[in-house]
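Students often ask why we bother encoding 3D structure as a string. The short answer is that it lets us treat folding as translation between two languages. Here is a chain of 271 residues written in the first language.
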Amino acid sequence: MSNSDNLRNLHDRRLLLLAGLVVVVGGVVAGQLWQPAQNRDWQLQVTPPGKILSTGSSVEIFAVAEPREALPELPDSAWLHRTMGRGGRARPPQIQDRMEMPRNSEGVYAVRIPNIYSGFDYVVVLGNRRSRRHRIDVIAPPEIQTLKLRVLPPAESEQAGVVREDLAGEIPVPANSRLHLSLSLNRPVAAATWVWLSEPPPGNLQPARKTETVPLPLTDEGRKIDYEWSIERGGAFMITVRDEFGLESILDSEGQIVLQREAAGAGSPGP
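And here it is in the second language, the structure alphabet:
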């Protein structure tokens, strides 16, 4: 056999080997492209995808694999990974912990995190899948800087006015008096409300419930309340505010207006 024939045979064998390799690789790629949808077309949906909470609040985080009709067999638990801090050179992120998220009877993975005092990033891991990174931010509720509640008895009563610098406890108020509330906050709020509360029967451990709510006007771009009104009823009360994030908090403590009069009659709700 001549050298030219040997070279031709070697070239033919190389072509056959290359063709076989193309077939094998093509089969693998085709197998990946045509594998059933349940092996690749599902993802984790996390709720909430981010949130702002008041200091000390709790949050429940849920995760579900979707679409449910295209799922492989999934683990009984997912895992929530928390990373505290925002990162950067000054404050490098620190991995705080991971928390188990058991699957309930409806196929939803869930975990409750109580008493949150600092923000964190989090991802949910299920098998070899990870959710997108989400964030929980925590902010302190608005705080009172100054507070004065003036009790202004009617002139005919010849009683001196009283100034309170807190709302806690009983506040004696002569009949037909007026109240003047002057209050400033450390940051703006979107709304403020005077809330009358129910009084549970003696021995009832249930918390007081809202019975009537009355909006309080805000001034100084939401930082102050300066309002005067006639008080015609007594009872337990509190003042709540709602900030720009929709978070509601109670200012100071619950108080008790005690009307000093003999006749008991229903009056207007207050402010």
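Translate back mentally: The two ends are 114 Å apart (CA to CA). Keep this in mind for the problem set.
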